[in-house]
Amino acid sequence: MKIIINIDDLVPTAVPAAIERADTSRPVGRAHGGLAAFLLCCLAVAPAYAQDRDPGEGVGPVAAPSEPPPAESAPGTPEAQPQAAEPAPPAADPAPPDSAPPPEKVRGTVVRAKSSSSRRLVRSAEAVDVVDTSEAQGRSEDLAEVLTRQSAVQVQRTGGLGSNTQLSLAGLAGDQVRLLLDGIPLDYSPFVAGLGNVPVSFIQQMEVFNGVVPVRLATDALGGAIHLRSDLSPPETGASFTLQSGSFDSYRGTARLSWLAPERRFYARAVGFHDRSRNDYLITAEASGAMGRVESREIHRSHDAYLASGVNLEAGVLDLPWADRLAAHAYFAQYDKEIPHNPVMTTPYGEVTTRRRSLGLTLQYTAPPTERLGLWATAGFNRRLSELSDVSACTYDWYGNCVSERPTGGEISGLPQELFTRFDTAFARVRGAVSTWAPEDLEFSLAFDQSWRTGRNDYLQRFGYYDAAAVPIAMGSGIAGVSHRQRLFEESLENVVFAKGYLQLARIGEDTRSAVTSHERTSVAAGVGDTLRFALTRQLSLKASYEYTTRLPRADELFGDGAFLLENLELAPERSHNGNLAVELTPLVTPAGVFSANLMGGVRSVQDLIILIAGNQTERYESVGKARALTLHGGFEWTSPGRWLSLGANATVNDYRNLSETGTFARFNGDRLPYRPWFQASGALTVRVPELVATGDALSLTWNTRYVHTFFRSWESAGLGSPKKPVPSQLVHSASLHYRLPAARHAFTASLSIDNLSDAAVFDVIGVQKPGRAVFGKFSVDL
Fold it and tell me: What is the DSSP letter of 201?
């Protein structure tokens, strides 16, 4: 849990001069040598640009692509005493009663109790970190990088832009940690490619729930949840544009447009994004040299291009007699990605490609507030289309050359695949807050999802073979929860007790050629929990939390994917006892500066752990037994008087071990689970120069360092061999130079970043090499 104070309207970031790659024949920032010069030009024109600025007026971001709020987070104890003085922001138009107040215009990466909504969260009994993205919006970072550097979340990706990402929190990974966008699963949005592909400029803050998830989110997370918020600001008229360009022919662009009618009863918003990259960074692979000998060589990664674009449209009405807010969203997104090699980077591919499409409609309703009841509802429909094409008979080398041909196509398994899948989901969420003995002390939520999957494998159907993808499946799930909050001792003590229920119904169609013997299954589970906070002082508090929770299996875990992943309708839901103890120091103003810190320890005791078991050509999910994770996380931040210097650091230790006593993994009892880093640490130093050339501007230089300790790719006691070869320790430095110039209600931002300054070899959780040194420039304007 990173604890950082957002102490200004201006982004602390920075970077030294551009650095060339070790391969000097190919500059890192191809065609981007003018980025530094552009920044200098920005400084030169800044005084003229700032002439129109009202010195007493702050500048805030245009409202992000908003989804109506899933009922704002649980209130906490009274607000902290005022922090160090700062210029007063402009008076904002009143937000609709259901909306959280707009966040203060701050520019730190991670915020502890800065905006009203984050203060309520941090000062509540919940085990939560609040990560503000204001600073990152001005830099060439994505959400995955922000979380990795600034929180207990570990994010691993399999390559460059557009590659798959895996989240890990206290050792639990993948779907065990749920991702939500404004209260709705991220899968039901334009961003089906994962967290790393969500533009950072669209998200205002992230809420990281450590193992214990509040009922208002209505999800079945096993290890916690990450809640992305784009809906914290009320609708306003404005626009925002960003453009990022850099190494590996990478480009990212976003646009946001927002309009609020003069009578403030109707609004419309539109957001769009476009990403592309060749991802042709240097890797080390076993390849043929000039004399034909196979040796370890540095080559440019091939067949890894990425292209994505999407749009989200929103229209809504406010302050109706029967609705405080009523909004409709329509969206569409497409992702095209080349697959460069197999998962462990031992076999190169040359023509394997994937395509994804996501489109849908969402309706959101907030009832007019009353003394006794607040009500929020969301319903929608999402369609996800995916395509895997693997038909080439060529055998490719690491240089992208076809060196031989096989009798049949199919680079992955030797069998051609022309797989198309359609996944339709109808969903609904309802949340209520009831005031009985105290304001909003009783809370309830209901969630329902009904999904249908159909598909086909054109190659198999062309020759009359059995096509598992064509067998239809249907799956419905429901989650209900209720909680009660109580405050005692002049609100120094807050306790929230809650209960949850889970239901899943799954059915697969019958086919005489299928090996499936059970076509239906029903799972029912229940959970309970409690969160407690005791305020020792206004800034210092103790927290404890516990939840017995359940994760329902995904559709592909139960039914396979119709190709290489086999079905298993016997999977049991995963269950876990999660507990946390924490001490937190929220921003404390002293003559020596502003301090904040926290320390959290936790335990996760998992039953019926689901693990993917791989065969020669197929894979299958199995329930294998028990596991236990112990975690310890701490962080601090200090900001100097005058706010010209800030320093922050955090570290996380996870001990995640297999406790299975029967079954496949019993012989590895006591081993750490593979593919999971057990120690990571990060630090950041920012130097800020305010009022450089114009009133209100600032130039910032930031240095980030991150360390990941070595970990195994297989079981510790499995013996020798390449599968056990550990992923080496990794120490990565990055730097960023950032300039921001506010003017009236507008703002101009330019940044230059260098990632992996030392060009160190960095790897994902299974040892796949990630990009080396890279240079990026980003420009944005708020109108």
Answer: G
φ/ψ of residue 201, rounded to 5 = -70, -10
C-alpha separations of 384 from 65, 228, 307, 440 in Å: 20, 20, 17, 37
pLDDT in tens, 111-126: 444 456 777 888 888 9
256 near 270, Cβ under 8 Å?
yes
Rounded to an integer, the average pLDDT of 722-740 is 85
Give the C-alpha separation, 23 to 690, whole Å: 38
Distance (Å, rounded) from C-alpha 703 to C-alpha 699?
14
Integer CA distances (angstroms), 87 to 9, 55, 100, in order: 9, 9, 22
> Residue 372: what residue type?
R
Query: Starting from the edge strand earliest in sequence, which strands make up the sheet with 177-181, in order?
Result: 128-132, 205-210, 224-229, 177-181, 184-185
DSSP codes of every residue in 645-690: EEEEEEEEEEEEEE---SSTTGGGTTPBPTT---EEEEEEEEEEEE
Cα(151)–Cα(651) distance, integer angstroms: 9
Question: How would residue 13 be classed by pLDDT, with cut points 50, 70 and 90?
Answer: very low
Work out the average pLDDT over 125-139.
Answer: 84
Label residue 52 left, alpha or beta by phi (over 0 means left) and psi (-120 to 50 means alpha): alpha
Quote the tokens at residue 775: 């240079």
Question: Helix, strand, or coil here: 555?
Answer: helix
For residue 601, what pLDDT is reported?
95
Neighbours of 402 (CB within 10 A): 13
Sheet strands (E) in 679-729: 679-690, 698-708
Structure-token pair, residue 157: 């990706």
Tell me which residue of 528, 442, 531 sits closest to 493, measured CA to CA: 531
Q: Please classify residue 93 by burial: count the beta carbons closer than 10 Å to its beta carbon, then call 0-12 exposed, 13-18 middle and 19+ buried.
A: exposed
Tokens of 229: 């918020």
pLDDT tens for each residue of 571-601: 889 999 999 999 999 889 999 999 999 999 9
Please say whether the beta carbons of 567 and 556 come within 8 A: no
Residue 162 CA to residue 158 CA, distance in Å, equals 9
Q: What is the dihedral of CA 149, 108, 531, 216, to 10 degrees?
A: -100
- CA–CA separation, 534 and 431 (whole Å): 27
Report the distance separating Cα 276 and Cα 180, nearest Å: 25
Helix (H, G, I), strand (E, B) or coil at 225: strand
Eight-state DSSP code of residue 412: T
Alpha-carbon torsion angle 166, 387, 220, 632, nearest 10: 0
Residue 248 has pLDDT above 90, yes or no: yes
Task: Count H helices and E strands in the chain, helices first.
Answer: 6, 36
Tokens coding 71: 């009922």
Distance CA 49, CA 125 (A): 46
Per the CB < 8 A criterion, the answer to whether 681 and 707 are in contact is yes
List C-alpha distances in Å: 545 to 78, 127, 152, 209, 660. Answer: 20, 7, 17, 11, 26
pLDDT at residue 38 in the model: 39
Residue 765 has pLDDT above 80, yes or no: no
In this predicted model, what pLDDT tens digit does every residue of 169-206 receive, in sequence order?
A: 888 888 899 999 999 999 999 998 888 888 888 898 89
Task: Report which of 328, 284, 298, 332 is spatially closest to residue 312, judged by C-alpha positions.
Answer: 332
Among 126-140, 592-606, 742-756, the least confident range: 126-140
Could you tell me which of 706, 74, 78, 774 has the C-alpha nearest to residue 442? 74
